[in-house]
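User: For my dataset I need records formatted as: sequence, then structure tokens, nothing else. Please produce one.
Assistant:
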Amino acid sequence: MKTEHPDQRVGIFVDVSNLYHSVKNLYNGRVNYKQLIKHLVGNRKLIRAVAYVIKTEDMQREASRQGGAPPHAQGRSERPAPAEAAFFDALERAGMELRSKDLQVYPGGFKKGDWDVGLAVDAIRMADLFDVIILVTGDGDFVPLVEYLHFGKGASVEVAAFSRSASGRLKESADHFINLEDIPKIIIKR
């Protein structure tokens, strides 16, 4: 049962890749992040909302075409490709701060890009700032994080995800599960 109080301090941590793939595969759509944040916060006080994103190869190719080197080579961040830049801007306009890193491409073409450890470390590091921590992900790898935040830090932990693609254990471990399928205006059909 979810209990909201206006004086509750809320921190939101968004696993953008998980959310993106869920809404794309389930609805062939995209997420209205402004509506998402508005619904998750409700009448409470938003302290921080952090979105974890991966810069794609398209963005890296665009930077190379413009004569830019990877940020680790020049010590500066590269410009995203236009579509990705627009997406990142939309996240920021929705009130989120971005944490980004490059997609890793290994020999043989294997690609990896996730923020699981970074999101978990940030949530633990910032936990004392919040009364309620909302994890926007359906990834079952976050069950130990939910348990630690609740039992180790005393925070109320809510998980927001699409029920059909979310881990059952993750839904059960949260103090409250928010089914994103039930939120009006959150899914934008393509």
